[in-house]
Amino acid sequence: MIDKIKNSCGSLVDLNELFFWLTNNIVCMASLGRKYGGSTFADIMDRFVHLLSGFNVGDYIPWLAWIDRLSGLEEKAHKVAKEFDDFLECVVEEHVNKRTEMDAQCREDQDLVDTLLDVQRDNATGFTFHRDVIKALILVRVLFLILN
Fold this sequence. Notes:
Blueprint: H1 2-7, H2 15-32, H3 39-53, H4 57-60, H5 66-71, H6 73-101, H7 112-122, H8 131-147
Helix pairs in contact: 2-8, 3-6, 6-8
C-alpha cells in the first residue's frame, strides 16, 4: 500500500480502493489463512454490498415481493450467493488439500477454516457438521469483519 502511494507521487490516489484492499487482506489473512486479492473476490463483495444497500420492496411490503422478482433483484441475489458458495468451496477445498500435505507440527499456524475442519473431524459439536455449515460460518465471519 505504501509503495502504491509512493509510486503515484504527484497524481491522485484513490484511498477508498486502497483501504478496501487493506481491509480485505487483513480479513482474509485472519479468517482464510491467505490473501485473496483477485478481482473475483472484490467483484463478489462489491455486488454483495450493493445488493445489501439496495431497496428491497418485499422486505417492507411482503405482498409486493413479486416486484423484486420482476426487477431482477432476486436473480442477482441468487447469482451472488452461488458465486460466494463456489468461492468458499474453493477455500475449504484448498485447506483440506493443504492439511493432507502438512504434518502435525505445522498445525500451530491454523486459521478459522482449519479450526472448523478440526471441529468437523472430531465431531465435537454433537451434531453433523457439514461443509455447508463451515462455509456459512466463514461467510458470517468475513462479512462481519468487512461490514463492521
